[in-house]
Amino acid sequence: MELALDTSASISVAIVDGDRLIASASEYAPRSHAEILAPMIRGVMGEADATGADVTRIIVGTGPAPFTGLRVGLVTAQTLGRSWGIPVAGVCSLDALGAEHGGRVTVVADARRREVYWAHYEDGVRVDGPFVSVPEEVRVAGDVIGRGAALYTEVFGGRPEARHDPDPAWLARLVRRATACGQTDFPTRPLYLRRPDVHGGPRA
Amino acid sequence: MDPLVLGIESTCDETGVALVRGRDLLGESVASSMDEHARFGGIVPEVASRAHLEEMLPTLDAALASAGVSLADVDAIAVASGPGLVGSLTVGVAAAKALAVALGRPLYGVNHVVGHIAVDELIHGPFPDRFLALVVSGGHSSLLMVEDIAASVVELGQTLDDAAGEAFDKVGRLLGLPYPGGPHVDRLARGGNPEAIAFPRGLSTPKDLVRHPYDFSFSGLKTAVARYVEACEDGGRDVPREDVAASFAAAVADVLMTKTIRACRELGIQTLVIGGGFSANSQLRELAASRCAEEGIDVRIPPIRYCTDNGAMIAALGSAALRAGLPRSDLGFGVDSALPLDRAVA
To answer: What pLDDT score does B130 carry?
Structure first.
């Protein structure tokens, strides 16, 4: 079994066995990642009747995403992996949406501060991005999906059904596919895409 | 055998992990991002948060190695859940929760500021039944009445404006010293005359002592130093930096100790514990030793390396919470950047 989680938009956890989804949970709570994620993992593992000994790999979305929530997912995945002595694989969170939709698609996520994270996909493969910019600067190709698209309907067209966050079960599927193709390195480095805000700037 | 407690600290710019059994520190590791902040003249929260994520696993591994234990040996986990920077706190709390879930062990969210006092039990042994604690750091200057470090802490007073360490950093800036100014001002002060300039003692008039017997104020003192430096510069005189630093440091230590001793006397307290980053200050340590000796008060101050932020203080407070039989924290607790000091355990 594999435990997959993503905190780039919603807080989402899934336990999968191959392509089979065993248990999952998801909640959209932009300021409560540290509160919600750990109990959610415990709950989903209970539902799957799984213990740490059953989990062979952890998969985590590496963003891009608002920083504090993203770090909750990454440090949780890394610490679980260390505690259970199993590998942790990182995947760009937007890839889950690109792969799930298929075909030609632009994935647009909410970056707050009136900006979005975005990337282009062809048949589930990221061909450009991820980037961060104001919505008006997104180069649209194919369908437009994701929470950012739903948030800025005036830019991307009104598609309320497009409100959709990365599904960790899809992240797990992507890692499994890449592993089958021989990929061994799945870095868990956060995709911040922005430098830290420094008020006042360096002092002489 | 006492339970083995793993403590995690990440409230500001230090990532700390330590292992404590009972009141024995078995091993620890601390990583700091201070070098990355120094050029900005202050802590940059996002830089600190990013560093915590990078340092968490290496610090955990190093602490376990230095204690000679493995994660399977850990009986309980403690983490600082506040007060502090939200982004920094969040990394440590998430890591601690992941450990609690993965290992199936109880988790205690504990108060960082109270931890600055709790750490002294690892150095000087069990606390008496009743004592006063003075916590002084870059973020806090508080006087606490303690009957049980985990279960009964009452805040008697606190700073109404700047913390003592903060005032030192600001005066360091006025004197053209690098950030963080505290240690630099301390060093400069050792070469000066502490009685050269009569700087004010905040909240010390008879009227203030009625309304704020155990509160502190350092912003007026900082302003007085700024005026003095300006007057020298306007008059074309060299600023006597050593004397300014020494007289300023003397004013801070004097007001802290005068109010603290007064509280000890009024409340019939025999033991004083001083903790927090600013308790590394040499003038404060000397004055505390001499004044407490005069009054017959037993004063306990941890060695300097345990005054700054570290995992040992959090593991020590977690260990005290277990000893006091407190219930574990619910796994759904959040970080609290303004956690009140009378809540030692979240």
So the answer is: 97
